[in-house]
Specification:
The complex is a heterodimer of chains A (about 325) and B (about 325).
Chain A (H helix, E strand, L loop, with lengths): L6 H26 L14 H9 L6 E4 L4 H6 L4 H8 L23 E4 L7 H13 L6 E6 L6 H12 L4 E7 L2 E2 L2 E2 H4 L23 E6 L3 H17 L3 E6 L17 H8 L3 H12 L4 H23 L6 H5 L6
Parallel strand pairs in A: 1-2, 1-3, 3-4, 4-8, 7-8
Antiparallel strand pairs in A: 5-6
Chain B lengths: L2 E5 H15 L3 E5 L15 H5 L4 E3 L4 H13 L3 E6 L2 H4 L3 H8 L2 H4 L9 E6 L14 H4 L6 E3 L4 H13 L4 E6 L6 E5 L12 E4 L4 E5 L2 H15 L4 E5 L2 E3 L4 H10 L2 E4 L8 H12 L9 E3 L10 H7 L3 H11 L1
Parallel strand pairs in B: 2-3, 2-4, 4-5, 5-7, 6-7, 10-11, 10-13, 13-14
Antiparallel strand pairs in B: 1-8, 6-12, 9-11
Helix pairs in contact in B: 1-8, 3-5, 9-13
Classes of the chains: A alpha/beta (about 325), B alpha/beta (about 325).
């Protein structure tokens, strides 16, 4: 059973989700202004999945994800100022301005990074889990990925190895319905992605339960419960795959004309958005909580304002930064 | 401790065993490394000695062998991942190039990847076009990775031990037809050779032969033949394609003013191209002739014995190239 979150915890999840939303909205503006370059994949829509999943982990556990990583980084507690500084390519960024939007990491917080190659981080997750198991540590890895990555070889090789070696990994598929512009049903033989785990289901010791639940990824409580349970299984026996049904309310990246879906479809999901829904739940559960929620909303806006200030006032990387960390000296 | 004459295979085994005894974090993973004992028998007996935890058979899954080894290295272990032959490393190219070589840089030094990927290279065994590549130069293109290619048992042991002890990712390439070659090798468990140092394998004054891996064998044989004709070749064994140490090449070239590069790679964009470019840049005033290159022919390798050998370099081809220069 998952630890039951108290009011303070639930308000903190709300805070994280709102912070992510405001952060992403601001990033979109900064991108339009030319202050953020490269690709920019916004985490607007799937906030409940990232926040719920990370909330289910302990400090010693591990998180790794793909390139839509801002929300995961903020949920894991990376400093919002330094995340924004990375967006702006500043020396104070979490990756020193050398990684950018797709490559946010913090070793100390066991956030092993966002990765730009679809599926490329999945074997890394298996390796991190192997290291934990090898060293006899009671730790679990949550590897987030998009639906698109479940069609690439890395996915199948990594799931298979994790089952053969009983590795403590939760494979969390954020199914946002589209791999770039290609709908899941047009790209995946298995339309219910969670079924793909079936093929690798029996770990060598017979404890395999690779196929976990399909959860409502717009419901932070449901995601928290599912990942808590999956992580528990992963620690004890081996890998689990959870599919989180979510939706990205913005384009794949900036400048996506979104010809692959209708406005009506996007609008229908906007009304089911995870933040409004969670706010309604909290208002219902705790009488008079609105003022606290309003205050959280204001604080999130201010935190993002401050982060932009911090980033803008930060120095650019130098020539020494350019040439450092290619090798261990 | 004394030296002992052993094969390259035995040198590799000894290096692995000593480093596994020395450091609990070192482990081996790959296809057929355990129960089978290694397809080239380098890890024979290891699974009994070190157990399944440290000698890990994997599925035939090069992408995850390389990628999981990167993750394990980032998380504090010191994996030795075996890719059975370098032909299969093409499947793992993304994990090696985009992750092993780059995660340190991309995340500004937060991660360290103390990883060795061992693999075998080379043609000449009638295995056809897909199983006969010698493409280590491709991997040497990328900063963040080291690429070592030993040509003797002595180097094999010292270079592999150095690779395992180093905190950077190393692609360690062994030639599949040279595993039985013998040399005197130190038994001292702390014998290591520096990473990124070339080695002059033969002294001479008339021509500089730059080579590595199997090319060393062709070049040494050629040098014996040339010597009978009064031509003394100096042979520089690069040993490492990255870091590439050309200082001994330049030193030699100042004396010989002529250079032949011998390698099993294909002719275009190979080490010969790099060495020739650097010699004309650094040694222009010393040049008496263009740099010549001996490599495989620019075709896929065929199966049939005679025409396969026709396509590969040989001592005779090295002799002929040198004679065109001096």
């Amino acid at each position: 059973m998952a630890r039951q979150p108290n009011k303070e915890t639930l308000l903190d999840w709300y805070r994280q989700m709102v912070l992510i939303r405001r952060f992403e909205e601001r990033c979109a503006e900064l991108y339009q202004q030319g202050l953020i370059g490269g690709f920019l994949h916004l985490y607007i829509g799937p906030e409940a999945t990232g926040v719920g999943a990370v909330a289910a982990l302990r400090e010693q556990d591990h998180v790794i994800t793909a390139y839509r990583d801002h929300g995961i980084a903020l949920a894991r507690g990376l400093d919002v100022n330094r995340v924004m500084a990375e967006m702006l390519g500043k020396r104070t960024g979490v990756s020193g301005g050398k990684g950018g939007s797709m490559h946010l990491a913090d070793r100390d917080l066991h956030m092993w990074g966002g990765y730009g190659i679809v599926g490329g981080h999945l074997p890394l997750a298996a390796g991190i889990a192997l290291a934990a198991k090898y060293q006899g540590k009671d730790e679990v890895v949550v590897a987030l990925m998009g639906d698109g990555s479940t069609n690439i070889g890395y996915f199948h090789e990594s799931l298979n190895l994790s089952a053969v070696w009983d590795l403590p990994v939760v494979w969390l598929v954020e199914n946002n319905q589209y791999g770039m512009g290609t709908a899941v049903g047009r790209a995946s033989g298995a339309v219910e992605i969670v079924n793909k785990a079936n093929a690798y289901c029996c770990g060598a010791d017979g404890h395999g339960m690779l196929q976990g639940p399909r959860v409502d990824g717009m419901d932070v409580m449901a995601v928290y419960d599912a990942i808590s349970e999956a992580a528990e299984h992963a620690r004890k026996y081996g890998p689990v795959l959870v599919e989180s049904l979510t939706y990205r309310l913005e384009g794949h990246s900036m400048g996506d004309p979104q010809r692959y879906r209708t406005k009506e479809e996007v609008e229908s999901f906007q009304t089911k958005g995870p933040i409004g829904r969670f706010r309604a739940l909290l208002s219902d559960k705790y009488k008079g909580v609105e003022s606290a929620l309003d205050r959280i909303d204001e604080e999130a806006l201010k935190a993002v304002d401050d982060a932009v200030e911090f980033a803008k006032n930060s120095p650019d990387p130098t020539y020494d930064d350019l040439v450092s960390h290619v090798y261990v000296d | 401790m004394a030296d002992k004459v052993i094969t390259i295979r035995e040198a590799l085994s000894a290096a692995l065993r000593e480093e596994m005894q020395r450091d609990e974090r070192v482990f081996i993973m790959g296809e057929e490394v355990g129960v089978w004992g290694g397809t080239y028998a380098v890890t024979r007996g290891f699974i009994d000695e070190f157990g399944e935890k440290r000698v890990r058979d994997t599925p035939i899954s090069e992408m995850v062998i390389a990628g999981a080894a990167v993750g394990a290295a980032m998380a504090g272990l010191r994996p030795i991942a075996e890719i059975m032959t370098i032909n299969f490393a093409f499947l793992a190219l993304d994990a090696i190039v985009n992750h092993a070589a780059k995660v340190r840089y991309m995340f500004n030094g937060q991660f360290t990847v103390p990883l060795v990927i061992r693999t075998t290279t080379g043609g000449g065994k009638q295995l056809g076009a897909t199983h006969s590549h010698a493409p280590e130069v491709i991997f040497a293109h990328f900063p963040g990775l080291y690429v070592g290619v030993p040509g003797t048992a002595y180097d094999a042991k010292g270079m592999l031990k150095a690779s395992i002890r180093d905190d950077n990712p190393v692609l360690f390439v062994e030639h599949s037809t040279m595993l039985q070659r013998r040399a005197a090798v130190p038994e001292d468990p702390d014998f290591v050779l520096p990473i990124g140092k070339s080695d002059v394998k033969r002294r001479g004054k008339d021509v500089t032969i730059v080579t590595y891996g199997k090319g060393l064998e062709w070049s040494m044989t050629a040098a014996d033949t040339l010597s009978k004709d009064g031509i003394e070749a100096e042979i520089v064994d690069l040993r490492w394609l990255r870091p590439l140490d050309l200082e001994p090449v330049f030193e030699s070239f100042k004396k010989t003013n002529r250079c032949v590069v011998v390698e099993e790679s294909l002719p275009m964009f190979n080490i010969g191209a790099e060495v020739a470019a650097q010699i004309q840049q650094e040694m222009f005033d010393y040049m008496d002739a263009p740099v010549k290159r001996v490599s495989a022919m620019d075709i896929p390798l065929p199966y049939s014995r005679e025409i396969e050998l026709m396509a590969l370099p040989s001592a005779e081809k090295v002799v002929a190239a040198v004679k065109e220069l001096v």
